[in-house]
Amino acid sequence: MKPFLGFVRKEFYHILRDYRTLLVLFGMPVAQMLIFGFVISTEIRNVNIAVYDQSNDTYTRQITDKLLSSGFFRLHQRIQSPGQIQQAFRSGKVKEVIVYESDFAGKLLRSGLANVQIIADASDANQAHMMVGYTTEIILSCMASWNKNVPSPVNVQIKPRMLYNENLSSAYMFVPGTMAMILMLICTLMTSISIVREKETGSMEVLLASPLRPFQIIGGKVLPYIVLSLINAVSVIFLGVFVFGVPVHGSFLLLFIECLLYISLALSVGIFISTVTSSQQLALFLSMLILMLPTILLSGFIFPVESMPTILQWLCHLMPPKYFITILKNVMLKGTGIDTVWRETIVLLGMTMLFMSLSIKRFQIRL
Fold first, then answer.
1. Are the C-beta atoms of residues 304 and 47 closer than 8 Å to each other?
2. Most buried among 74, 175, 296, 305, by the most CB within 10 A?
């Protein structure tokens, strides 16, 4: 029995002295619990809205104030003309617009009926459904407060409109998100083992002895995968359009260029991982660990970024899929051009250059 207890004691000492094991045992569950707890939420918070108030009376201001004080919405813009509504949505900064008809208070007092239109960006069907539901409940609560102890009750007729996805098809949400996830995971996994495989098979010495420069070796590794990944991207777009009915209202050329840029970024991340790992198993593990959960949870694919705590929103800004999903929704669903998605394009280009430079530098160090 003593030898067994001694062996158990030795194993405890081994675990307690290995910080990596302790990190996996205690750090990972805590991190996962915090991330899942804050990210996985069916609520909406801090959603940017715009208000087109053609009446600007006591009643409309009361509804707007109650919307903004609820914590669900924050005012991004006051719209002055109908033409600005489409511009607000195409910019991607506004998710919902509240439109009050002219002479709102006068119509309520004269006929007991006035109209409010709720226009929601339904490129994310779940979020749009919740936004309209929350807004409707707040307007109804205002109407109930107006009708207390009055002889002639008033009624506000709410007219919801779902922009870009009138039928609230979930495919409009999951096709761009799934496309971003598939391309990121497949491209990264393919290239993350490329240089590691050369080391394991012993062919790295051949590369080192060749007259090729580091950037040529990296480029040679990446180019075949770019071609194959573009075929993957075309296949995914084809399935999205012809099987799931997701439209492409924007430029196919712009969509192709953005896919090429995103694929290049994913491949450069994979190459970088392959330069810092020593085995194919470790490269695959790091690729899955670093990209799988963050791509699903922190990209806005399923859960709105606006509803997350501030620190997680900062992390979301480091996730390439977040920018690519925004580009896909703008180009495919809204029909916008480069004038709308240029910021996201620059971010993806900068990330690509960063990881490619780091990969070349790491490879030069190995040389």
1. yes
2. 175
CA dist 268 and 41 (Å) reads 33
- Residue 9 is predicted with a pLDDT of 79
Residue 224, amino acid: P
Q: Give the Cα-Cα-Cα angle 322, 184, 182 (nearest 5 degrees).
A: 100
State which fold the 47-163 domain adopts.
abc type-2 transporter like fold (3.40.1710)
Query: Nearest CA to 331 among 251, 262, 238, 233?
Result: 251
Q: For residue 206, what are its two tokens?
A: 């051949």
Confidence of residue 169 (pLDDT cuts 50, 70, 90): confident
The answer to whether residue 41 scores a pLDDT higher than 70 is no
DSSP-based three-state secondary structure for 110: helix
Cα–Cα distance for residue pair 323/298, rounded to 1 Å: 11
Which band of pLDDT confidence, cut at 50, 70 and 90, is reported for residue 51? very high
Residue of 127, 144, 128 whose CA lies nearest to 63: 144
Burial 164-190 (b: 16+ CB within 10 A, else e): bbeebbebbbbbbbbbbbbbbbbbbbb
**Looking at the chain, which residues constitute the CATH 3.40.1710.10 domain(s)?**
47-163
Higher-scoring residue by pLDDT: 188, 50? 50
CA dist., res. 262 & res. 4, Å (int) = 55
Q: What average pLDDT score do residues 201-213 get?
A: 64
Indicate the average pLDDT of the chain: 84
Q: Which helix (H) or strand (E) holds 96?
A: strand 96-100
